[in-house]
Amino acid sequence: MSTPAPPTYGPPITLSQAKAVMTAAETEAITQGWPMVIAIVDSGGNLVMLQRLDNAQLGSIVVAQSKAETALRFKRPTKVFQDAIASGGMHLRILGMANTMPLEGGIPLFAAGQIVGAIGVSGMSSGQDAQVAFAGAKALDGPA
């Protein structure tokens, strides 16, 4: 049994695509009454959009962007790292990685089967952050 190839990086998310993702994520956060920070990076890791909803904590600005960057760099949701750390043991080595935000709420963004960017959300519990991130991702092809 062969392991499937990891997804490839595609062209950078367009501003139009990023706006659609942001609108969907923001709508979910507002519907739930959650003060969030939402960050979108392109396939090169560059910040495309960042919004801090009213009353969102200032500390979430850096966290949201770091979640998006981690999801992009490692081509996977940040929940993978959160779960690994929760299992303990040798997985705690992740804490020594300077470029990793091991908190759920960051996911790669896909268009035409390629990673075009990532979204990171911070402000509530990790599960709620992820709920908003997934709502945004659905504006494109959604997460793989």
Structure explained in plain terms:
The protein has 144 residues and is of the alpha+beta class. The protein has a single domain, classed as Beta-Lactamase (2-Layer Sandwich), CATH 3.30.450. The protein is 38% helix and 19% strand. The chain has helices at residues 15-32, 60-74, 79-87, 126-137; strands spanning 37-42, 47-52, 106-111, 114-122. It has a four-stranded antiparallel beta sheet with strand order 2-1-4-3. Helix 1 (15-32) crosses helix 4 (126-137). The radius of gyration is 14 Å and the shape is globular.
Secondary-structure element string: HEEHHEEH
Biggest sheet details: 4 strands, antiparallel
Number of strands: 4
Structural class: alpha+beta
Give the low-pLDDT segments.
none
Spatial strand arrangement across the major sheet: 2-1-4-3
In percent terms, what proportion of residues is strand?
15-25%
Shape: globular
The CATH homologous superfamily corresponds to: Haem-degrading domain
Query: In CATH terms, what is the architecture?
Result: 2-Layer Sandwich
